[in-house]
Amino acid sequence: MASEQATLAGGCFWCTEAVFDDVIGVSDVVSGYIGGQVNNPTYKQVCAGNTGHAEAVRVTFDPDVISYSEILDIFFATHDPTQLNRQGNDVGTQYRSAVFPHSPSQEAEARAGIERTQAELGQRVATTIEPLAEWYPAEDYHQEYFAREGSRNPYCMAVIAPKLRKFRKSFAARAKAMEDAG
């Protein structure tokens, strides 16, 4: 299996991770921090909004199964890319919408994805394209958070579960849950 990586920030990393964990062709999703000035930041530091980092996910995927362009389409459809430095009640630059391309071709596809999304939504997309920077995996207790805590955490039930339902409805052919159900 060939693999590529995509690094995406779309608000709370628990939400983004849960969606991409359910995508056919994705083999790994890691929550973490990128785009800041502090080495080895902690969750507490990033949440304070003073490090410059974004909560993000690093998605490893098989480009023979799902393209980077399709990864971007899912990303743009499962968060609000028109919000500047916020997603719902999560406010601050750490919750910004951003793409961190791993190559010039990913950067070109990210630009095309933003244009496609703006045309679809009929409004300006606030998602930025930022240089790939040092990646710091989040603390272990953040990894696979929804899978472990989703059924008993009110935030997960109120915010993440609806995102998953939207993904599974809009991208049914790409959802592992739908594949397993079939």
UniProtKB/TrEMBL annotation:
Record-annotated active site: C12
Gene3D superfamilies: Peptide methionine sulphoxide reductase MsrA (3.30.1060.10)
Claim: Plastid is one of the keywords in the record: no
Keywords assigned: Oxidoreductase
SUPFAM superfamilies to which the protein is assigned, alphabetical: Peptide methionine sulfoxide reductase
Peptide methionine sulphoxide reductase MsrA domain mapped to chain residues: 5-156
Pfam families according to UniProt: PMSR
Database matches in InterPro entries: Met_Sox_Rdtase_MsrA_dom, Met_Sox_Rdtase_MsrA_sf
Catalytically driven reaction(s): [thioredoxin]-disulfide + L-methionine + H2O = L-methionine (S)-S-oxide + [thioredoxin]-dithiol; L-methionyl-[protein] + [thioredoxin]-disulfide + H2O = L-methionyl-(S)-S-oxide-[protein] + [thioredoxin]-dithiol
This enzyme's EC code(s): 1.8.4.11
GO terms for MF: peptide-methionine (S)-S-oxide reductase activity
Family membership: Belongs to the MsrA Met sulfoxide reductase family.
Function: Has an important function as a repair enzyme for proteins that have been inactivated by oxidation. Catalyzes the reversible oxidation-reduction of methionine sulfoxide in proteins to methionine.
Designated name of the protein: Peptide methionine sulfoxide reductase MsrA
Native source species: uncultured Sphingomonadaceae bacterium
Designated gene of the protein: msrA
